[in-house]
Every structure is written in C-alpha cells, then in structure tokens.
Write a structure and sequence with these properties.
- The complex is a heterodimer of chains A (264) and B (258).
- Chain A has helices spanning 47-54, 94-98, 100-104, 109-122, 138-150, 168-185, 196-202, 236-251, and strands at 3-16, 19-32, 36-40, 62-67, 70-71, 79-82, 156-160, 188-192, 205-209, 216-221.
- Chain A is α/β, with parallel strands linked by helices.
- In chain A, the strands form 2 sheets. In chain A, strands 6-7-8-3-9-10 form a 6-stranded mixed β-sheet, with helices on both faces.
- In chain A, α7 (196-202) packs across α8 (236-251).
- Chain A is globular, with a radius of gyration of 19 Å.
- Chain B is 83% helix and 0% strand.
- Chain B contains 11 helices and no strands.
- Chain B has helices at 5-29, 39-48, 50-84, 86-101, 108-115, 119-143, 147-155, 160-197, 203-212, 216-244, 248-257.
- The chains are: A alpha/beta (264), B mainly alpha (258).
- The interface between A and B is medium-sized, with 24 and 22 residues.
- The complex binds adenosine-5'-triphosphate (ATP) and magnesium ion (MG).
- Adenosine-5'-triphosphate binds at residues 14, 16, 21, 23, 43-49, 212 of chain A.
Chain lengths: 264, 258
Amino acid sequence: MALLIVVEDVGRIFRGGAKTVYALEGASFTVQEGSFVSLVGPSGCGKSTLLKIASGLLPATSGRVLVNGKSVDGPLENVGMVFQSPVLLKWRSVLGNVLLPVEFARLDRGEYVEKAKSLIRLVGLQGFEEMPPYELSGGMQQRVSLCRALVTDPQILLMDEPFGALDAMTRDELDVELLRIWGEKKMTVVFVTHNIQEAVFLSDSVVVMSPRPGRVIRELAVDLPRPRAIEMMSSPEFGRYTLEIRSMLASAGGTRPPAVGSTT
Amino acid sequence: MKFSLKNIAEPALFFLALLALWEILVKVVGVPAFILPPPRDLYTSFTAKFFILGHHSLITFTEAVGGFALSFVLGVGFAVGVVYSRHLQNTIYPLIVILYAMPKSAFAPLMVIWIGYGLFSKIAIAFLVAFFPIVVNTVVGLKEVEPELLDLARINRGSAWGVFKKIRLPNSLPYMFAGIKVALVLSVTGAIVAEFVAANEGLGYLVLQANYSLDTAFALVILLILALLSLALFVVVDVVQKKMVPWSAEVRQLEGSF
Ligand SMILES: Nc1ncnc2c1ncn2[C@@H]1O[C@H](COP(=O)(O)OP(=O)(O)OP(=O)(O)O)[C@@H](O)[C@H]1O
Ligand SMILES: [Mg+2]
C-alpha cells in the first residue's frame, strides 16, 4: 500500500477582529491509499479545519499536506465531501442532487445518470430518484449526500461528522452501509467524528487529537477483523481500543476520565 | 389550507353578519350617511358607477403594476450587482439605504415637476416604494447559501456562472417572492398616494372627488376595490410561487423552527 495523504506539521491560525485563534499546531499524520482513517478529538480542536486544509479549500499557515506526493496548494479534484448536514438543493430531485458535482465539473451529465442511479440503488434509495429531498428522512438525506460525494469516483472521500446529527440506530445502520460501500468502491476515507466507538468500528487507523491548538497525540492502528459487524462493539478487543482512546483524550485534557471498570 | 366548505362558509357567514350588524346599527343609531352610510348605499353606489370605477381601476392597476414591474427588473438586477460587486456594495448601496429611510411618497410632488402630470409620475412613485423590498429580499436570498455548497462547487471546479445559476439564484427565489408580495401591495399604495398629489384619473383621484362631494359611500366603495385589487395581485403571486417554488414552504418552515 502506498501513502496517499501526508499531513506534515500543519498549523493554522485564524486572525480576525480582536481575537487570534490557534486552531492547529504541528499536526502530522499519514493516510495509506485505500484505508479508512478517523479523526477524533474534542470540539474545536481543528478537525474540520484539517479536512479543509487537506482538500485544499483552506491554506495552512504552516506545514504542508501532500496528496499523491504533490503538495496541495488549491482545491483538489479527486475529492468527495460529506458534511454534517446533508446540504441538498431543495429545488432538485434526489437524482438531480447527486448529479450536481458532475455538472459543476462540466462532465457529460448523460454519461453519469446511470452511475448516479446505481449509487442511489447502492444506498437503498431506489424509487426515490425523483423525490424532492425535503420529503426524505435525515438518514435518507445523508445517503443522498453520500451518493453526491461518490458520483465522480473520487480517490479520497472526506467526511466531517456525517452521521453526527442522526439518532444512534440510524448512525449504526449508516456506518455498516458506509463500510460496505467502501469495500466495494475502494476509495480512501478520512472520517471526522466525536464518537469514539464509531471511529474504532469504522477505521483502520484512528488519529487522536489534542484540544486546541490541535496536534495529533497518536495514530492508533485498529486491528479488528473485517468485515465488521455492529455486534463487535461489545467484544473485549473493541472495548480495549475505545478505552485506550478515551484515556488518551482524557490525559490530553479533552474529556472526562473514564469511570473505573468502564469498558467503553 | 384546504378549501373545504367549512373554510369558505365560515368567513362568508361572518361577513354577512357583520354587514347586517352595520346596516342595523346605522339605522338604529341614526348616523348621518356622509359619516357612515349603510352597506346598502355602498351597493347602490357600486352598481351606479360601475363603469367609471372600471376605467379608473384600470388606470391605477396600470400604474401599480408598471411601477412594480420596473422595480422587479431593476431591483433583481441591482441585487445581483450588489452581491457580486464590492464597488456597488460600497458606493450605491448606502445611497439606496438613505433613500429607503426617506418617505418615498413625499417624492410625489417632485415627480410631478420632474416627470409630469401623467401616468409616468405615478409609475415612478410605485417603483420607488416597491424597489427596496425587492432588493433587500433578493440580496439576502442570494447571500444565504450554505457554505458547504460553495465548497462543493470549488472542489468540482464549478464556474461563477454555474454557482449563480444552480445555487444562488434558485436559493433566492423564496426570499424574492416574499419581497414581491410586499412590493406589490406597496406599489398600489404608492400609485394612490401619487394620484392624491396630482392626477385627473385613477382611484386615488376618484376618492378625492368623492370626498369633495361628501359621497362617503362611493369613497368606501373605492377603498374596497383597492383592497380587492391588492388582494388579487397577492393571490396571483402566491399561485405563481406555489407553482414555481414549491419548496418555499420548506424554507419558511426552517426559518420558523430555528
Ligand atoms: N473561518 C474561521 N475563522 C475564524 N476561526 C475559525 C474559522 N474556522 C474555524 N475557526 C476556529 O478554529 C478552531 C477549530 O475549528 P474547527 O471547526 O476546525 O474545529 P472542530 O474540531 O471541527 O470542532 P467540532 O468538533 O466542534 O466540529 C475553532 O476554535 C474555531 O472557532
Ligand atoms: Mg467540525
């Protein structure tokens, strides 16, 4: 496996008005091609900022990001993005929303219609192609958003707390589905979440970040077998991973220390 | 809202009751007709002067809709300019805000000097009062775009024109329609006020005539016609909006729930 993304000593300072925010300071980690990497860390530690810098949407103040060995200095092309809210266009059907990146990229829309439809089938939304998005549930909308991110076959999928606004049951369901799609499409995923269990469940590697200014405390490899199933969350190995991450976060001052005897 | 029998019957019955009460009160108390005529007088006045009313309504309608149309075209154009050009935003926009703070109908006498006695000075006032709500609402609608969508466009190398056509413009439609509704009602008012100042045609002129001859019944009829005119315009816009922007209820809901 080749190194796809190298985040090297990335710092980011926001200067605005009276306040200067040191969002990131010397954050470094790497992502192997085809792997699933999660970023966890306390709120405000710069996870979203890091994703934006990695995609080239935001310049770093210091350090650099290499993708495919090249330094990122503008918006990347081979990236798909899923955000915390689905941000679908209300005036377009599900299918029209999925095709939006295709239109922006001036690709041949006709060629991508079948592709979009098969993605919509892949996430279990067949029959909803012509529906307006506001008639779908939150979970269904986020599935559409995932299709939209995948329609141009990106090499990298960046997801910023994509299921954070959903209820726990829907989130589990979508986590499993995401892994299935990832197994099929083989793209590289960088996934931001607040949820330690979710990070462990999904990832090959979990990048644990300190409170602001965000640094990387540790890149923890998760050697749990694949394919993964929700039941694995109750296994002792799984518990060890979540506990380890939790105590790392706690000693970095980002979260409460785990209760004695707690497994997660 | 559904147009069930109950939804129509209830307000209709209420109106009839109100009219009846009005008729009875006026008779019993003995209010002089030049202060408050009974509804029966209004009806007589309406039927007697039906064609005159029609003619003058058409004049006022033309002025209001003409002024509105102008404000729509120029207002949307100006809003786009303000959103896309920092220079416009820094120069002309503050000027417009100052203009907005002035009572625009106070321009009516000046308009007579500048443009003359006829239709166009009325259209100018209707335009002035309608312009601002169109601009403000359209500017907000063009700007209030989720930043994630703009990121999505940047990642996929979307053009500025693509962002405008596919995101900003459709996003602004519900706001624009809200502005249109306000603007239309205001433009009718604007036309009337302009007619008060100087005119020999139109419903505003007609109200003044009715006042001079203490024909209160006729004046009230004219006011009712004005109300109907505004209402009809409003309903037309609402129907167009439901057809063109079926998701605007969704936007309103969102605004309401946060
Ligand atoms: N455009 C900006 N201008 C100024 N400050 C910003 C900007 N974007 C982010 N910040 C600041 O940078 C810090 C990191 O923000 P960021 O959104 O990356 O955190 P996060 O880890 O994603 O948080 P959360 O988990 O709550 O989403 C915050 O303190 C935030 O206020
Ligand atoms: Mg964030």
